[in-house]
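Weekly structure sync, notes
Attendees: PL (lead), two postdocs, one rotation student
Agenda item 3: pending single-chain targets
PL asked that the sequence for the first pending target be pasted directly into the notes so everyone works from the same version. It is reproduced below exactly as submitted, 166 residues in total.
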Amino acid sequence: MRKSFLGVILLFAAAGLLGQSAALPATPGETLSGKRIVLAEALRGHAAVLVMSFSRDAGKECDLWGRLVRADPAMSGVAVVQVAMLERAPGFVRGVIKNGLRKGLSAAEQDRSVILTQDEKLWRSYLGVTVDRDPYVVLLDAAGQVRWRGHGAARDQEPLLKAALR
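Predicted structure, written out during the meeting:
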């Protein structure tokens, strides 16, 4: 039986074979359901996958990443959080964006979707953002250490990730 590529990531993460990095930024945000959240605090002690967008184009691909990761049996028990950075969006437009993002999402999905409106420069540095239209994906272990990171289309990452793990 073929193991999923995310399952392989988790095996390497558990063995501590992938790189570590700085701590998750402690930026306050809000879930689409309206709850205040600081991801660094909420995820402390839990393995998690963050899928983050810095543009509308990236947001569409973030949805695909989120579905892919949540559907993978190897990821059961791992928090999957989609994050949209809206710092550059004018304040009067943010409400419209939030309403658009909420559309069609269940209450649980809204709780797993976070809006950030500050510290964009810090997040860009943390994730190594080079292309705004790409989603950025980070696998964190329970200690908050980065075990894998990538960006771009979900379908393009599987072969790149497998090659990196060889």
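Discussion points:
- The helical segments are 5-15, 39-42, 56-71, 91-102, 107-111, 120-127, 154-165.
- The two ends are 19 Å apart (CA to CA).
Action: rotation student to compare against the earlier draft before next sync.
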